[in-house]
Amino acid sequence: MGDVALLKKQIVSRFNISGFQIRSEASVFLAQQIAPLAESDRKKWLHNIANHVQGQNLNLPVVEKRHIELAIKEANNTGLEDNESVFSVISAFDVPKFRYCEDKKKFLPETGKKGLLPGPDAKSEYIRDRYQMLWQKTSRHEMFNTSKIVLNNNVKRLTLRKIETLLSTSKMNEVVILGLLTQLTEGKFYLEDPTGVVPIDLSQTVFSSGLFCEGCFVLACGKYRDGTLKIEEMGFPVTELASSSRAFFGTVNTWGGRSKSLLKYSKNLAELEAKNSEDSIVFLADCWLDNPIVLDKLRSLFSGYDEFPPVAIVLMGPFSKMNDNIYSLRGRFQALGEILASCERLKMETDLVLVPSCDDPTAANILPRPPLPEFLVADLKKRYPRTVLTTNPCRIQYCTQQIVVCRMDLVTKLCRNTIHFPKSGQLEDHFARTLISQGTLAPLHPIAMPIHWNYDSALSLYPLPDLIVVGDPCQGFQTTEQECTVMNTGSFPKSKFAFKVYIPSSRTVEDSQIPDE
Questions:
Q1: Shortest CA distance to 290 belongs to which of 227, 378, 359?
Q2: DSSP structure class, residue 233
Q3: How far apart are CA 207 and CA 419, in angstroms?
Q4: 493: cis peptide before it, omega within 30°?
Q5: Nearest to 414 by CA among 438, 446, 450, 444
Q6: pLDDT, position 154
Q7: Residue 430: how many CA atoms within 13 Å on its side-chain side?
């Protein structure tokens, strides 16, 4: 405490020389931030932060705590351009929306305000937008442009058709259709696209890898006879690298955040990313704050990382196992704040990102889910100012890398709703292929996975990010498809307190665990 009091006097004196009056709360906060540093580093940081405050052009010469917080963030980003940031969290409700224009053969940004309660047309629009996205990347794939197949010594070209072409005839061989797998009547499956609907026969179908659920778009090959498409082979729409997808968006920022251009192309951030080889991001799910054992393991995790602070620690809900009421849960977050208050280096260098689950209070079971309410975590934020409340799902940008985080029982839901469970291969590979082929976090019927129609773009995985993080209670895993890493954290308590650590510089995932004492 003596160090903090002495530092506070130095801070007040430094700002007075610059013609500023600094609030007591702001000076104490800054003193706490720089106290763990060596004497020479303290002076350098104080000088940099004072200069950044001067650059904020304050209306009054009074420095508040928020001015210091902004100055620290800007000082961390020294050498970057105004809209470049090393680490940022993007709300699902701030994700830009794009719609494919067939005339211009590119995606154009949608403008205008969106609401949570749109008109009935919004439901068909978001499904149509998904179809258009999948159609454009599938139709230009070499399979349908240059590829040829050999059947009975005859060379033939594959043709991707729409359902209206089937409805105009009674017989057609070698049909390839991209359509939505749906049940219009119970027990009877159909394929649907914007031009029509056709009943399908799956009795002789061979399924490719993936988890095929009602609500998925599928690529079906077969024969059309007497009003029914007899499917011989069913697969998913083709996948493609993010670099290929981005060519149809231009340089506009498709990810979200302050920058007008996509930070994927930033040379400054690419250099920082390569340079900061020790940087890491920690992910764990099922942070039951009402469980004393979980809270004790979190204390061990935070104290361990206080020596080597990661860029961020991402905690996913539910934050209560017993479905606490909101007043009890507020006390749980206060207890978490008391644990974090003693972690001085974490408080200065690490963001704490809280991603709610659909079981956390005050929001319906619909994606995207809004952040936890401010009043629930007010005490935590006082003790740990770098707490970030965000949506579920959310997007994270670290230097040039793009990360999607979703707390949902996605693996479980896909396995429960699939019409054909794969007989071979690893479950994680089937799961990853399903998400990446569909280009969305919600490849299910809206009844199985309700979403806000106007914010379907927040669930989009097209173009592919660098990392997809899912918080599902089933066993944790990581796999790679089309240079995109798909990772499931598993449940922190159920996996004997295991969690995942992502190393951005090497794009690798490490398994970690809190040891038994």
A1: 359
A2: E
A3: 10
A4: no
A5: 444
A6: 52
A7: 21
What pLDDT shows up at residue 151? Answer: 44
Tokens of 293: 């054992």
Residue 152, pLDDT > 70, answer: no
Q: Estimate the crossing angle of helix 2-17 against helix 39-54, to 10 degrees.
A: 40
In whole angstroms, what separates CA 496 from the centre of its chain? 25
Q: Are 476 and 490 in contact (CB under 8 A)?
A: yes
Q: Residue 157 — pLDDT band, cuts 50, 70, 90?
A: low
Structure tokens at 459: 């669930």
Q: Among candidates 12, 6, 22, which has minimal Cα distance to 62?
A: 22
- In degrees and rounded to multiples of 5, residue 494 shows phi and psi of -75, -20
Rounded to an integer, what is the distance from CA 17 to the centroid of its chain? 45
Phi, psi of 474 (to 5 degrees): -70, 175
Q: Which helix (H) or strand (E) holds 200?
A: strand 196-201
pLDDT of the residue at 289? 96
CB-based burial, 120-133: b 16+ in 10 Å, e otherwise: eebeebbbebbbbb
- Residue 312 burial (C-beta neighbours within 10 Å; 0-12, 13-18, 19+): buried
Q: How does DSSP assign 115-149, residue by residue?
A: -SS--THHHHHHHHHHHHHHHHHHHTSHHHHT-EE
Higher pLDDT, 145 or 314: 314
Burial-class residue 226 by CB neighbours within 10 Å (0-12, 13-18, 19+). Answer: exposed
Let me know how long the chain is. 517
- In one letter, which amino acid is 122? A
pLDDT in tens, 320-341: 988 778 888 999 999 999 999 9
Amino acid at 451: I
DSSP code per residue over 20-50: -EE-HHHHHHHHHHHTTS-HHHHHHHHHHHH
101's tokens: 């224009």
Q: Could you tell me which residues come within 8 angstroms of residue 381 by beta carbon, excluding any fewer than 6 positions away?
A: 337, 374, 387
Asked if 313 and 352 count as a contact pair (C-beta separation under 8 A), the reply is yes
What is the pTM for the complete model shown?
0.85
> Tell me: the pLDDT tens digits for 9-56?
889 988 888 888 999 998 988 888 888 887 877 888 888 888 888 777
Of the candidates 355, 372, 358, 257, the one whose C-alpha atom is nearest the C-alpha of residue 314 is 355
pLDDT in tens, 236-247: 999 999 999 999
The predicted pLDDT at position 156 comes to 55
Residues 6+ apart with CB under 8 A from 146: none
Is residue 210 a contact partner of residue 437, using CB atoms and an 8 Å limit?
Answer: yes
Burial call 262-297: b when 16+ CB within 10 Å, e when fewer: bbbebebbeebbeeeeebbbbbbbbbbbbbeebbeb
